[in-house]
Amino acid sequence: MGIKGLQGFVARVCPDACKTVDLREVAEKHRIDHPDFPPVIVVDAMSCVRYWYTPESWVCGGQWREYLAILEDFIKAFMAAGIKLVFYFDGVVEEKKRDEWIKRRLQNNKEIARIFQFIKTHRKQPGREMFIVPSALPTFTRFALKSLGQKTVCTLQEADFEVAAYGLQHNCIGILGQDSDYLIYNTCPYFSIEKLSLDRLVTVMYSREDLCRALGLSLTHLPLFACLLGNDVVPESLLEGFWRKCLVTSPHKNNSYNRRTNILLAVANYISKVPCSYSSLKHLEEMLPLGSDKTLLYRGVESYLLPGQQSPWIPPNLTSCQTFSLQQQTDVCQDKEIFQLAKEQHIQSENYTIFNILSKGEIECSNSLEDECDTEIPGQALIYRPARQHIYSVLLESGKGGAYPLVKEWFVYFGNPLQQPELIQPVQPSMPGGTPNLKTLWFAKGPDVEKQRCSTFLACFHLQDRMEELQALEAPVAAFCCLLAYLMMQVSSLSLEDLNAFVAVILCLKGKSAAQLAGLQLAQVDSRGVHLGAVFVRGLTTLLMANSACGFPFRMDDLMPWEVFDGKLFQEKYQQSHQGCSLEELLEGNESLYTPFQNLKSFICKACTAKKRTIQSRPRGNGFITGTQQREFNPRFQQTHRSSFVPPYHNQRRGFLWRNPQPQGKKY
After folding, report:
1. What is the pLDDT of residue 664?
2. Dihedral over Cα of 470, 548, 381, 396: its sign
């Protein structure tokens, strides 16, 4: 989260702490000083994604091939300078950050509502000032960087702590990110992603030493300074009285500054006169209205201490590195072999959410670009919940005679106030003989096990009865069909026109370059198409979760959005389909796609019919949704405990063909 206002304060009040640096020169100096160690920059990826996502279109579901090309160019620029990058992603939301996470999610809901109102009014995308990253962008960025050969780490605790620790321990030339906490940690230099000029590799370095000089502080003061301004551990609400006291005695009060700037100067002035000792910290704790938790300041200061570091504010015998906090929890999964593999895959960014479920039995999902006024489409969190319940069952092996551990879900959707997690019951998927043992799925070898992995995966989406058809498809297309069939079955308002649009996208996307997709121009944007694009992309993350749980019947690369989806292309096909265009126009005049189009469409319709779901034609023409009526709950989607499924279809197949080289023959 960082310290509110600190980054802007440094730029306005301490310009000497903002130094323009040429990263090539920094790297060259490092090579001279440390000839045996190549220059490394550790990247706080979560604070960079919004700066990396520069495609013009962002509301339609994501321009994934364009984005992949941008990431590739980013990496190449640093490689050309001989700089290695290591990317860190948040792997958990720590308990101490949950309240802040909820606050941001509820704020994002309001921003998304404004975006949809704009689209309905103007039939176009808002300007960049309303920008929100496409749904699931951080998740797919992690896999994109891994696919591009980069070292990508998913954290076990707060990402900024692990980034700062890695930078210090590996003598990195700097941290690249946009988080004022990096001004507080005593670690390697902090470089700005916001100010980075990629073509010249020039950016701004924020200097802790110069900040301290300007404030009359030492580096050891900075953790306490951060705590007394309010951070993730010490809430601002407890500090108002203290700030008023500091403002009264501050010699630096300046009417041309805003209140926050004056508070920063006043707090720095106060701290500079306090002796650096544990007794001083205790005295401060007594001054503040900390309630029952008198150790708040102590814990706040300690949270900035990296492994091996000490602080005069904390006696050495009391210091306990943050990493110990990981051992305080009781893991949901008691099998050490399974737990260890899940943990390793989590750190190496090879699986998705599995470790969170097996360790804490808890999972979260941030906002999606969903229209809360569209009463016909349930929240994606509810659409994919039945699949997740099956995945939880596979992971936690419920129904094997033991208790059913509930999974805590923090999923953002309309009507969920996020006051507490929803407790979700795992539900066994319907499989002859039951679901295989997790050890079998993860560790056993051989064609029979490969088949079990695939049938378990398909059972999570109620598709295990359609093995033969899926077996004939290329892996990304097979995965796409699983998701689309599930989606069509779960959401009864989806029409033949919606189905046609989705199928046209995967067929027309094949062979299109990032540049071609970037050049695609939309005359207007449809809000329902925006909503469906976000729902589909969130479905891809559900495929990732199922694939990770079932022992990887698919290669993760085959489940990526750049393989099967493009936001603008979907928006174009959606509008064409609903306006009743010809098949020839929908498929861009490519006659070779006609048969594959009918085959894929037929597969999905048959899968739905088998579950008594008939997909009907409901052309919307140019009738853009403009309604502002409040969404009402569909009772079917409120149920969190269900023993049998009203929706989906079944499908079974030898999915081991998906992971290995594709056989020659039919591709669609």
Report:
1. 35
2. positive
Q: Would you say 27 and 82 are in contact if contact means Cβ atoms under 8 Å apart?
A: yes
| Count of other CB atoms within 10 angstroms of residue 256 | 6
End-to-end CA distance of the chain: 46
Instruction: Provide the whole-model pTM.
Output: 0.91
At residue 595, what is the residue type?
Answer: T
Please tell me the distance from the alpha carbon of residue 527 to that of residue 121, in angstroms, as a whole number: 10
- CA pair distance 160, 198, nearest whole angstrom: 23
pLDDT at position 665: 37
Cα 632 from chain centroid (whole Å): 28
From residue 659, give the alpha-carbon distance in Å to each of 68, 328, 447, 537.
22, 38, 12, 22
- pLDDT averages per 10-residue partition of the chain, 668 residues: 88 94 98 96 97 98 98 98 98 90 95 98 97 97 98 95 98 97 98 98 97 96 96 89 93 86 95 93 87 84 95 78 52 92 97 96 97 96 98 79 84 96 95 91 94 95 87 93 97 97 98 96 97 98 98 97 98 97 97 96 95 94 53 38 30 46 39
pLDDT at 434: 87
* Full DSSP string of 310-327: -BTTB-GGG---GGGGGG
CA distances to 161, 209, 212, 222 from 219, rounded to whole Å, are 17, 7, 7, 6
What are the tokens at 630?
A: 């409040």
Tally Cβ neighbours within 10 Å of residue 211.
Answer: 24
Beta bridge partners of 481: none
Q: Closest Cα partner for 656 from 439, 351, 447?
A: 447
Query: How buried is residue 592: exposed, middle or buried, by Cβ count under 10 Å (0-12/13-18/19+)?
Result: exposed
pLDDT score at 1 = 62
The edge-to-edge listing of strands for the beta sheet with 84-89 is 18-22, 202-206, 190-192, 174-177, 40-44, 84-89, 151-154
The number of CA neighbours under 13 Å toward the Cβ of 107 is: 8
Q: How would you write 137-197 as a 3-class SS string?
A: HHHHHHHHHHHCCCEEEECCCCHHHHHHHHHHHCCCCEEEECCHHHHCCCCCCEEECCCCE
Amino acid 320: pLDDT: 54
| Residue 294 confidence (pLDDT) | 79
Residue type, 514: A
Strand partners, 521: none
Give the phi and the psi of residue 351 in degrees, each rounded to 5. Answer: -120, 180
Q: How far apart are CA 432 and CA 297, in angstroms?
A: 57
- Contact (Cβ atoms closer than 8 angstroms) between residue 619 and residue 498: no
Instruction: State the amino acid at position 423 in one-letter form.
Output: L
SS3 state at 88:
strand
